[in-house]
Amino acid sequence: MSSDSTHSAARFPSEVYASRLSRAAEYAREAGLAALLITPGPDLQYLVGSRASSFERLICLVVPADGETPTVVVPRLELAALTDSAVAELGLQITDWVDGVSPYDLVAEALHPGAATAVDDAMPALHFVPLAAAVGRVPVLATDVLRRLRMIKDDAEIDALRRAGQAIDRVHARMGEFLKVGRTEADVATDIGAAIVDEGHTGAEFIIVGSGPHGADPHHEVSDRVIEAGDVVVIDIGGPVAPGYNSDSTRTYVLGEPTPEIASQYAVLERAQQAAVDAVRPGVTAQSIDAAARDILAAEGLGEAFLHRTGHGIGLSVHEEPYIVSGNDIELTEGMAFSVEPGIYFRGEWGARIEDIVVVTADGCESVNLRPHGLTVLPVD
Ligand code: ZN
Ligand code: ZN
Ligand code: ZN
After folding, report:
1. Under CATH, which number does the domain 14-149 receive?
2. How many Å lie between the centroid of ligand 3 and the Cα of residue 270?
3. Which residues are placed with Cβ below 5 angstroms of ligand 2, an ion?
4. Which architecture does CATH list for 155-378?
5. Which pairing describes strands 35-38 and 117-119: parallel, antiparallel, or unpaired?
6. Burial call 43-75: b when 16+ CB within 10 Å, e when fewer
7. pLDDT tens for residues 197-225?
8. Residue 96: enclosing H or E segment and its boundaries?
9. Structure confidence by residue, pLDDT tens digits, 303-312
């Protein structure tokens, strides 16, 4: 398949990043911070579109809270790593350094002495400790500031999540090609991995093929177990599409007709998943969505079979805020994106899960995954 070039670009237009940087500065100011210090990872990718990796040589974006031009401190030999980012187009200050110079001092020089700074929560300790010493004050975590930004998806991000959803839907649509009696879970996963790339992802991030009793373990990945007639199989798959937004979708299959008991328990799960999706709208809490699914399962005696939270936010990271879990009273807001993925698990027997990614709209939600929810029956011969 192919998608048009603007859609498959490695990053968004630079205006998108300019807007994010100015909001990051504004939120940092509101949090009483002087600057944000961001090293490679999803936060750097979010703010400037850079997919650089973190090594022993420091790359650090300094975002001053007063709205002055951000600085990127970067090793001269890693300058090329920034060429795919928006750093040059945005006119950010680039401070390159060579071995023998302390990059931590360069960061400190971009700040007032003893400034209150916050760092991304993935900054390696290798950099955090000398940075704190150079700045003269221990930084706090920028988690809250970045969460506030990243949790609410803009139009470009929602479009990317839709493309990711469509790509993984196409993989599920082809499951009959891969999932067959006599093959191992690992064989099936190899084919799924290739299909994930064929259908437009830049790679496969995770592939769960939980057949028969393995389906009862939500953390199972793949094994050499051979698929048998009658198996219920949980397939939970996803990966990033350019410029880095992830898909994550689960469907449950059965090889041959399901037993009446499996069919009726699965029907309850399908109702629970739909009830949770139907409950999504601005102003309700994350935990109310969890309860919407859980209450239906509990009413049918399946409360104990639902072992995990109902969902997680998704974007540049597969798991991020907001978490759809009991105890999380954060209110949903238009633009939040998260999974709705209740499951039922019967140890030693079988399991099932249905997972869609939804985006909160003005009056409800839009699902980016559109495959049918029912137990998909695949032929046994
Ligand atoms: Zn998920
Ligand atoms: Zn999943
Ligand atoms: Zn349905």
Report:
1. 3.40.350.10
2. 6
3. 236, 248, 250, 355
4. Alpha-Beta Complex (3.90)
5. parallel
6. bbbbbbbbbbebeeebbbbbbbbeeeebbbbbb
7. 999 999 999 999 999 999 999 989 999 99
8. strand 93-97
9. 999 999 999 9
